[in-house]
Amino acid sequence: MSVLRPMVCSVLWFAACATAPEAQEPVAPRTPFEIRAGKPVEALPGEKRLRNVRQLTFGGENAEAYWSNDGSRLIWQRRATPADADQIHVLDLATGEERMVSTGKGRTTCAYFLQGDQRILFGSTHHHGDAPPVVKLTGRGYQWAVHREYDIFTANLDGSDLRQITDTPGYDTEATVCPVTGTIVFTSVRDGDLELYTMEPDGSNVKRITNRPGYDGGAFFSHDGSKFVFRSAFPKDEAEAKEDAALLGQQVVRPSHMEITVCRRDGSGFRQLTNNGAANFAPYWLPDDKRILFASNVKGLEEMRTTGNHVAARNFDLFLIDEDGGNLEQVTFCPEFDSFPMFSPDGRYLAFASNRHGAKAGETNIFVAEWVD
Fold it and tell me: Within 10 A of 225 (CB to CB), how many other CB atoms are there?
């Protein structure tokens, strides 16, 4: 708040008292912000770091819910039915009002608020056609499609004034924003491999950050803007690297062997934090910028090896780790899927996606909980 405002208000109040027969009633203080969207649900046994959990969406597939800078809204991607394509929605946490802000065409992903909360960004394919693009997965293990039609767009908070800010051939998306400078970090295949780049909100001043074999993506700035945390693939040998490159040519990646990594803002100081051979992704800094919360199926893989139940490999939970790779702690205990954690700007709340409390098998919904540190 401006330091001038209290002084101006005092002068105006004094002038009014000098001419009015009685002093004016003081203005009531603003009601503290309270999350009223959704409904309370129970935390699961063992989840000592989550308190006052609320379910915010009900049905369909909902993921990657990220906070506005003022902490009053979430923006996320939603697919109502398996036949639909993901579209971007915004939720007002105080009122529960929800609206779709993408075009409703093509396929969208990875939305985020720009500084000031007046504009948003997201990846979309709508400019290549109304129908969502289709990628045929090979069926060999856990795979993601990386559509070459994706570009990054910005828009007003209501979806108007849509502007395209990337236009290179191939995959451009996974964009997030520096809370200090407003710079965007994103993932692109423009140089032949999936690497991290930064740019300004208008798409200018593009700089390459990573330069190594394997997928580097899903990056988030630290709260002070000095470093990144992201997911990285590490091919175990030349044969696997060639196979990964061939899959990328088919717009497919294998996230089954990704580790959590960090580096400085300029790309220096690249370090691997996890080394468990699992699918580790969706990392986010804790408010102290010294610890990281991320999703992993490492426990599911352990169960699969012990019991022979391959379905267990789909079990993802949230884990806490120090920036030096120590003090690993399991945070969530849903037997299916927990991922995409993000702390509110004040550090009080954690938003995440989960299969818990679903009305149907496989539903993924958005939840918010008070964080217990």
Answer: 15
- Tell me, what DSSP letter sits at residue 316? B
The pLDDT assigned to 82 comes to: 85
Could you tell me whether strands 291-296 and 39-40 are parallel, antiparallel, or unpaired per DSSP bridges?
A: unpaired
pLDDT value for 23: 40
What separation in angstroms does the CA of 12 have from each of 18, 20, 22, 66? Answer: 10, 12, 15, 40
pLDDT at 4: 36
Q: What is the pTM of this model?
A: 0.89
Domain formed by 56-307, architecture: 6 Propeller (2.120)
Q: Which amino acid is at 91?
A: L
Torsion angle defined by CA atoms of residues 273, 274, 275 and 278, in that order, rounded to the nearest 10 degrees? -150
Structure tokens at 201: 């909100």
Alpha-carbon gap, residue 162 to 121, rounded angstroms: 9
Residue 252 has what pLDDT?
A: 94
How far apart, in whole angstroms, are the C-alpha atoms of residue 273 and residue 232? 10
Closest alpha carbon to 232 in 247, 211, 207: 211
Q: Which amino acid is at 151?
A: D
Nearest CA among 78, 155, 69 for reference residue 109:
78
CA distance 10 to 6: 6
Q: Which residues contact 139 (CB under 8 A, 6 or more apart)?
A: none
- The whole-number pLDDT of residue 251 equals 95
Question: DSSP of 149-215, one letter per residue?
Answer: T-EEEEEETTS-S-EE---SSS-EEEEEE-TTT--EEEEE-TTSS-EEEEE-TTS-S-EE---SSS-
CB 64 within 8 A of CB 118: no
Between CA 363 and CA 170 the distance in angstroms is 30
Task: Say how far apart CA 206 and CA 229 lie, in whole Å.
Answer: 19
Cα-based distances in Å from 59 to 125, 295, 354: 24, 22, 11
Q: Which residues of the chain have pLDDT under 50?
A: 1-31
- Please give the pLDDT value at position 32: 57
